[in-house]
Specification:
2 copies of one chain form a homodimer. Chain A is an alpha/beta fold and 216 residues long. Chain A is built from 9 helices and 10 strands. In chain A, 37% of the residues are buried. Chain A binds a DNA duplex (24 and 24 nucleotides) through helix 3 and strand 2. Chains A, B: It comes from Anaerostipes butyraticus.
DNA sequence: TAGATTGTTAATCGATTAACAATC
DNA sequence: TAGATTGTTAATCGATTAACAATC
């Protein structure tokens, strides 16, 4: 399914969550309608880009009126899959894994549910992080299958990450949120979203030392 | 300074840390030379892109030979500013702030030094995270000035982030590594590198639900 | 209706890839 | 030298912006 439509460029996809965030703020402020022009000024992008982006998914606006904030928020949520069950596990219960488990916004604002953390460290197994148990990594296969988990955050050291990613996929995981500083090579029906913190920090450092007067 | 050269596109800059990472692996494996073709196969990009990217900064290669791994690694490190002192502070000593302080790779592999964490929470003030003290946020201004800190990781809740960012800049911070889910509007000589985890997760979710057979 | 604003086509801009002369 | 591979120009591709007819 979804195979007949022309595929959407990843540049567009990456902008959707930001639209969603701004619409959430508008909604919270009881603003009911917004034009692409107004939104473009708030977001500091072109109105043209907003209209082009949204029209990849359908005509959500109305000529002469603009967009209904509530409706557009809901529709973008659906496009992003936030209307579906998004149960996830966190593989690696170290500092970063625990920090992710603690971050309530994923659940409260977007509906993601962390079902369990997994680790090999006996000192961690059995503890709870905000009500979520750390389980032995040996139990992971059955857990994934029993709960039909599709999303795994991978917060293991980089030397363990590729092998674990391979197994996760064998057990049914379809999307890996990868925090290990390594590239994972997986079947093409599996999605990898990398969060390479060190690379992000290096980009920052470059810009600090090379900033031009005409920044964007 | 740096104002006369044509500015480098951010697409190129964002690829540099990945080149750096691959070169680090080659170096660790005692590989002394590599051609753009070989590297392109490992990294799954085009050789043309590698040569174009590198030539923004100078001719690091040699016809008929390729690139010297050690030299190229060093040069890219310099471009990224890793040869400079990169002292940083972490503002917000919650789970994420502590997780960053704990992540030794920033220091061991790239030379970043976390000088202190800051928080308002009396329960956190005084504790140490991997030898780094959590200080009262009231001491931050003098600390930044005394240690000439230019880089701050901002791991506060989103409602506190914009005001704090403004102050950090007043006190001399030139680069903010922003983990708060909000856009910061700061003077253009200040760099902001966003790590918007929720947005990254939503992108993953979109792709899980909409993956095509012909993935890239 | 008149005014506003979308949806969409066309034009522009920038980034990627291909090609090849230069040269080690 | 002959072969390999860069540095760089030219061609292509894709993404962004501008423009405007459609229409609420």
């Amino acid at each position: 399914m979804g195979n007949s439509e022309k595929s959407i460029s990843s540049a567009v996809i990456k902008r959707l969550p930001r639209y969603f965030r701004y619409l959430g703020v508008l909604k919270a402020n009881n603003i009911t309608r917004i034009s692409s022009k107004e939104l473009s000024e708030q977001m500091m992008v072109t109105a043209s880009q907003i209209r082009q982006d949204l029209n990849n998914f359908g005509g959500f606006g109305q000529q002469g009126y603009g967009y209904n904030v509530d409706n557009l928020y809901t529709e973008i949520g659906k496009i992003l899959g936030l209307d579906k069950r998004n149960d996830m596990i966190i593989v690696g219960a170290g500092n970063l894994g625990q920090a992710l488990a603690n971050y309530q916004s994923f659940n409260e604002d977007y509906g993601y549910k962390v079902m369990a953390l997994f680790d090999v460290n006996p000192k961690l197994i059995g503890i709870s992080v905000r009500g979520v148990k750390v389980l032995d990594i040996d139990e992971m296969e059955s857990f994934i299958k029993a709960h039909d988990i599709k999303i795994a955050a991978l917060t293991l050291p980089k030397d363990q990450a590729p092998e674990m990613a391979k197994r996760l996929v064998e057990w049914g995981i379809k999307g890996i949120w990868n925090f290990a500083p390594i590239d994972l090579h997986l079947p093409e029906d599996v999605t990898v979203e990398n969060v390479h913190l060190a690379e992000s920090l290096m980009t920052l450092t470059y810009n600090i030392h090379n900033r031009e007067e005409s920044g964007d």
